[in-house]
Amino acid sequence: MKTKLIFIAIAIFGVLSVAMPVAAQTKSSADAASEAYRAGDFKKSIELYNGIVAQRLSEGEESAEIYYNLGNAYFRDNQLAEAILYYERALLLNPGDSDIRHNLRFARTRIEDKIDTSGSLFLTNWVNSIQNRFNSNTWGSVAVVLFILFLLCVGGYLFLRVLWIKKAAFYTGIVVFALMIVANLFAFRQKNLQIDRNTGIVMAAAASIRTSPDTNSKELFQLHAGTKVKVKDTDGNWYEIEIANGSVGWIPKENVEII
User: Fold this and answer.
1) Which residues pair with 94 in a beta bridge?
2) Are residues 27 and 94 part of one domain?
3) pLDDT over 80 at 41, yes or no
4) Which residues are within 8 A (CB) of 205 and not within 5 positions of it... i.e. 6 or more apart?
5) For the segment 135-171, what is each residue's pLDDT rounded down to a tens digit?
6) For position 64, which CATH number holds?
7) Both 47 and 132 in a single domain?
8) Which of 38, 179, 185, 224, CA to CA, is 20 to 30 A from 49?
9) How many domains does the chain have?
10) Cα–Cα distance, 224 to 136 (Å, whole number)
């Protein structure tokens, strides 16, 4: 038994001894990138932040804060398409962050394409605005808390003998249950957005949108760097995309970076 405990302790120590230097290195790189940004060396800051992003992705992790800082560095270096790309990635992970939304809106005012959005229902916009207050993990935590409250309401209804308390527990339980379903739905939708990424940013200075996935097909219109598109389908080296006003066409994959 003692031998097993010793082996377990050695294994834990080994994992920690590897993880701690990696975490320290990441923090050191982030500090250096932040320092370069403050000094006005935005290209150096971009290089360092991209190194952190690559390291985290290799570990299966993403950071809204790193994406946001990288977006800021790209923006200050006048690389608008890249800035918008990383603001969008940060917003995907942390949709309730007002700073990310503000910087993204401002960056969009600097791009060439000003596309009017197609009309959508007020109720849809209202529901989306509530959903976007939190990310999937936060909505999941809210759902767990509501589930516990629901169990308390069920317990109060079943075991308490005071009539008005039983009624209050019954109706409160119905409301809490409904809110729990909504919170779970929001958590699922936010997680689905992170997993099934079907939006992208046009990275080319000017990209022709065509009627079919063929360079010889008719050109419908052009999009420019920084424009957000929704990817509807793929065909070889082409994406079928839809823009905010509902227009649809095909664009080479090399001209779009998936958010």
Assistant:
1) none
2) yes
3) yes
4) 224, 225
5) 999 999 999 999 999 999 999 999 988 999 999 999 9
6) 1.25.40.10
7) no
8) 224
9) 3
10) 32
Return the pLDDT at 9: 46
Alpha-carbon distances of 70 from 23, 45, 81, 82, 256, rounded to whole Å:
19, 8, 12, 9, 19
Neighbouring-strand partners of residue 115? none
Does one domain contain both 134 and 148?
yes
CA distance 89 to 74: 14
**Domain stops at, among 179, 195, 211:** 195
Q: 118 falls in which pLDDT band (50, 70, 90)?
A: low
Q: What is the pLDDT of residues 96-112, one digit of tens each?
A: 999 999 999 999 999 99
Residue 255 pLDDT more than 70?
Answer: yes
pLDDT of residue 98: 93
Nearest Cα to Cα of residue 86 among 73, 102, 99: 73
Q: What is the DSSP string of the chain?
A: -HHHHHHHHHHHHHHHHHHHHHHHHHHHHHHHHHHHHHTT-HHHHHHHHHHHHHHHHHTT---HHHHHHHHHHHHHTT-HHHHHHHHHHHHHH-TT-HHHHHHHHHHHTTSS---PPPP--HHHHHHHHHHTTS-HHHHHHHHHHHHHHHHHHHHHHHH---HHHHHHHHHHHHHHHHHHHHHHHHHHHHHHHHHS--EEEE-SSEEEEESSSSTTSPEEEEEETT-EEEEEEEETTEEEEE-TTS-EEEEEGGGEEE-
| CB-CB neighbours of 210 under 10 Å | 19
CA 4/CA 130 separation, integer angstroms: 51
Q: Quick one: pLDDT at residue 124?
A: 83
Asked whether the beta carbons of 208 and 222 are under 8 A apart, the reply is yes
pLDDT over 50 at 15, yes or no: no
